[in-house]
Design goal:
By secondary structure, the protein is of the alpha+beta class. About 25% of the residues lie in helices and about 20% in strands. The longest helix is centred in the C-terminal third of the chain and has 13 residues. The protein is globular, with a radius of gyration of 28 Å. The model has no long low-confidence stretch (mean pLDDT about 80).
Length: about 180
């Protein structure tokens, strides 16, 4: 039965307040089972489940209703590795939701591909073997871009010291006596 709180509002019963939130099922859970020997960690990422091995993000698992073209296993890679990976994972393609035809580092093994599970398990085997083509350290590119160049000077900040208003002495109020 609901009780009134001190403010007078109805409070839900205690069993509803302390009930555990139901979690979404893990999409493509067989991928995590295949990577289990590496001790993967998972974190939410833009509606997906990101999979980390050590400090690297290696995959993202996605199964969103109504957004089927990019559902599947996302591979964290770089454009320079796409052709070589495509030889081993023929159904791999660019993710549509990330740029409307623009090539990104992320690639997807689409869930609707006839070899989806086989390709996902092959990607897991590559990760387990330490293949350098799969996996990125998050923020690595940003750190390089944001770091100042060696020997670069920062320009001096502009101040009002050069303006006429700044050169005038301030008038002090006269004491009335």
């Amino acid at each position: 039965m609901a009780r009134r709180s001190r403010s007078g509002r109805l409070a839900p019963p205690a069993d509803e307040v302390f009930a555990a939130r139901s979690r979404k099922p893990v999409p493509h859970e067989f991928v995590l089972e295949a990577l289990a020997p590496l001790g993967p960690e998972t974190r939410p990422l833009f509606g997906c489940l990101a999979v980390y091995v050590g400090e690297k993000i290696v995959l993202a698992l996605r199964d969103k209703p109504g957004s089927w073209p990019d559902n599947g296993v996302w591979l964290a890679t770089t454009e320079e590795h796409h052709a070589a990976l495509r030889h081993e994972l023929p159904s791999m393609r660019s993710i549509e939701v990330l740029g409307g035809g623009e090539v990104t580092g992320w690639q997807v093994l689409p869930v609707d591909a006839p070899d989806f599970e086989e390709a996902a398990l092959r990607a897991c085997a590559l990760i387990e073997a330490g293949d350098p083509r799969i996996g990125k350290v998050p923020g690595e590119k940003r750190k390089k871009r944001d770091a100042p160049r060696a020997g670069a000077r920062t320009p001096p900040k502009k101040t009002a010291a050069g303006s006429k208003a700044a050169k005038k002495p301030r008038a002090t109020p006269r004491a009335r006596g």
